[in-house]
Design goal:
Blueprint lengths: L2 H31 L7 H37 L14 H6 L7 H8 L6
Helix pairs in contact: 1-2
Length: about 120
Amino acid sequence: MKKQEMEKFKNILLEKRQEILDKVQRFQASGREVSEDPSDLADAASSSYDKEFYFNRSNSERNTLMMIDDALNRIERGRYGRCSGCGVNIETKRLEVVPWARYCVGCQEKREKGHLKD
């Protein structure tokens, strides 16, 4: 991958990283705002659901952050855009949709079927 292209993806990843960090902070704040002392059983159930919802959302976002950080490390090592499974170049269109992708489409499918380990 050309250096200019790699810089483009680095900027995309850094922007997405900041966007997710902002979301996580909002989710955490929203989760803290959920009532700790609901007055009836329905309020307690709703409060519990809301907390679980915010926790799951921020947990999912943290996983994406880890993948973004991994992609930024691959950029620094000069390995970005190469499949971690087979070593071929990952299609640019795939990276435009999922800039933190580690695998080409074929290896990703194998991984999802359990035929390829991390």
